[in-house]
Specification:
mainly beta, Immunoglobulin-like, 7 helices, 34 strands, elongated, signal, Arylsulfotransferase
Length: about 675
């Protein structure tokens, strides 16, 4: 029908326009990965810095743990967004959450949770890694319960003890929530302080012992992570603990997302000393509110006041209480029983609303660093809330639980990685070197060396300043062998790469390659070739050499004949035709006949000489005299006249290879 055809045509046009739009805007729908020629195994999500105030941003490194990415894991970046360390794979399997610098036995270490993602929580353990990126300790909870959770792993007391969260299913009477035909299931929030060396539980707190589920603002089946409460695989997560901190007096500060409250917990008996916000608060909020918050931290305390920080989500994906998420600095007056917001740290243009995760960190210089949770953005603000740094790992798909900033001195056990490229092996073909050292923070310069042989001597090509994760340098002349040295600010050599042979593309590829690198092929075949595919060898090329005993001439099974297989024969025919047309055929034929005659005469002379005939294989009990007699017998072929055809066909029969087979049973007979 005309109408139907018109509609179909319009649909095709719209579909084509949509596909074109998606192709033109790939960054909107997929994360951007970095690519390094010296480390092609690493392709971390790129940290893009959109706003930065020079001279105001705090020195240090940015620590994140992006997940729901192609390469989830712990990462370190610098203030310009350059990768410093990728822990993907080398740090272990699973996601990494909350990576930060901690003290362990007096030295700076990396500490983070590592484990498998569940629905709103995790199963795993805490990891302590030294500055050479070696795991020196793993920490797990005690008490015969579930493994630890992602929301907190915080070594304290110089790494002697650690705070960690546990999410444990527990049967519960849920008749108040219309679960009336049997027992319901709750997810109980637990935190422990454990001895790092022994995993002994020093303190334990369970939410059901102190906080009634009726005060929760997240009900069974209410959100995508709340759980139904009907079985242990979907328990109702009424509390959802997401941070733990400890003060000098030995009391704890915890955050509950699903009750929208902060609790101070007695380190003596686990009782709730006071509660900020939520149902039945201990204080009156003067100028603020929050909900679904994360990352509550003690900043200062005395007998009358408590200063703390938190990250206010203001949204859980279903209930929205705020127009944007933010960091908050809150002062509690214990005498007046009031709580006042001193500062708010807002996102760029006040338009970031995170439905989960997030954190706020007060830096030593009083600047504030914020991770924006399921929106994988980071920011830094001065004490008054002015935005100093704004960037993102990904705009849509990747999540990041926390982002923090610390000083860090990394010295990996591995050596620098080097890749060297030249478009050709001509002496004046330029040479480009790419070098990196994953996790090394002291490198300021790279020295490059080249030689004509692997063993040297090596000439110094240049010393260049380190730029980003991977530094490249182009030298005007070709060298087949190179290596690189990492140099610190004082000129000390920190490490040396392996000697690397220069990669050079084949002549067929050179026209598609640049002087400094050769980009990835975009498709099979040549440009404009339609329907090209990967080359698949003919059947039999990838098998071991084999000869059919029934047909020894068939050394390989080539499968069905194809057009390329007949090409050599066609070329031979064409050559003979050209030779005949040009008068070359008769002289060439005469020379060939003469050569054959000479060969036959020489062979006859050789056959008339005495021969050493091999002894036949025999059993050990057979007499050796028979074998000697056999050697004296004349060869049947040698007695034939030189013109007999059997003499030459028999002598020309070469050896063949046969497939492995079972041993001859006759050779295994009992000869005793």
């Amino acid at each position: 029908m005309p109408g139907g055809s018109a509609s179909l045509s319009s649909f095709r046009i719209m579909a084509a326009l949509l596909v074109g739009l998606l192709c033109c805007l790939p960054g909107v729908f997929a994360e951007i990965d970095s690519v390094f020629r010296s480390r092609p195994d690493l392709y971390p999500p790129a940290l893009t810095i959109e706003h930065s105030v020079p001279g105001k941003v705090t020195p240090g490194y940015i620590f994140v743990g992006p997940y729901e990415a192609a390469n989830s894991g712990p990462y370190i970046y610098d203030n310009e967004g350059n990768l410093v360390w990728s822990g993907w794979g080398s740090s272990g399997p699973g996601n990494a959450h909350g990576m930060h610098v901690c003290k362990y036995k007096g030295e700076d270490h990396l500490c983070f949770f590592q484990g498998a993602q569940q629905n709103g929580y995790c199963r795993g353990h805490g990891v302590i890694m030294d500055n050479r990126y070696r795991t020196v300790k793993t920490v797990v909870p005690g008490g015969g319960m579930a493994s630890s959770d992602m929301h907190e792993f915080l070594p304290i007391n110089d790494g002697k003890t650690a705070l960690l969260t546990v999410y444990q299913q527990r049967q519960f009477d849920m008749s108040l929530w219309n679960v009336k035909t049997g027992m319901g299931w709750l997810m109980e929030s637990i935190f422990q302080e454990v001895d790092v060396e022994t995993n002994e539980v020093l303190f334990e707190w369970k939410s059901l012992d102190h906080v009634d589920p009726t005060v929760s603002y997240t009900y069974p089946g209410h959100t995508d992570t709340s759980g139904t409460g009907l079985d242990p695989r979907s328990p109702w997560d009424y509390f959802h603990i997401n941070s733990i901190d400890k003060n000098q007096e030995g009391d704890y500060l915890i955050s509950s997302r699903h009750t929208s409250a902060i609790y101070k917990i007695s380190g003596q008996n686990g009782s709730v000393i006071w509660q900020l916000h939520g149902a039945n608060p201990s204080f009156t909020n003067i100028n603020f509110s929050f909900s679904q918050q994360h990352d509550a931290r003690f900043l200062n305390e005395n007998g009358t006041h408590t200063l703390l920080s938190l990250y206010n989500n203001g949204f859980n994906g279903f209930n929205k209480t705020h127009e944007y998420s933010s960091g908050m600095l809150i002062l509690i007056d214990h005498v007046a029983k009031t709580a006042t917001q001193l500062h708010e740290y807002a996102p760029l243009n006040n338009n970031m609303l995170s439905s989960s995760q997030g954190n706020m960190q007060v830096l030593p210089n009083h600047n504030v660093f914020i991770g924006w949770g399921n929106n994988a953005y980071i920011s830094e603000h001065d004490q008054n809330g002015n935005l100093l740094l704004w960037g993102y790992i990904d705009k849509d798909r990747i999540m990041n639980y926390r982002a923090q900033k610390f000083q860090w001195d990394g010295m990996p056990t591995d050596v620098p990685a080097l890749w060297t490229y030249s478009r050709s092996t001509e002496p004046f073909s330029s040479l480009t070197l790419y070098v990196s050292w994953n996790g090394a923070t002291r490198v300021r310069y790279w020295r490059f060396y080249g030689a004509m042989n692997m063993t040297g001597p090596y000439a110094l090509l240049n010393q260049v300043t380190k730029k980003g994760f991977e530094t490249s340098y182009t030298f005007p002349h070709y060298y087949p062998w190179t290596y690189a040295e990492a140099v610190d600010l004082e000129g000390k050599v920190l490490g040396k790469s392996r000697h690397k042979f220069t990669f050079t593309p084949s002549r067929e590829l050179q026209q598609y390659c640049a002087n400094d690198t050769c980009e990835n092929a975009q498709a099979y075949g040549l440009p404009g070739e339609e329907g090209a595919s990967a080359f698949i060898p003919p059947l039999g090329l990838t098998t071991v050499p084999w000869v059919d005993p029934e047909n020894p001439e068939a050394h390989y099974d080539w499968g069905e004949s194809s057009e390329p297989a007949s090409q050599p024969l066609d070329e031979a025919k064409e050559t003979l035709k050209i030779a005949y047309d040009r008068g070359w055929f008769v002289p060439v034929l005469a020379v060939g006949v003469a050569a054959i005659g000479v060969y036959m005469v020489v062979r006859k002379c050789r056959l008339q000489r005495p021969h050493a005939y091999p002894v036949k294989e025999r059993r050990s009990f057979e007499p050796l005299d028979d074998a000697i007699d056999e050697r004296k017998q004349p060869d049947e072929m040698s007695d034939m006249p030189w013109w007999h055809w059997r003499r030459w066909t028999g002598a020309s029969d070469g050896p063949h290879y046969f497939p492995l087979r079972e041993p001859d049973s006759s050779r295994n007979e009992d000869v005793s």
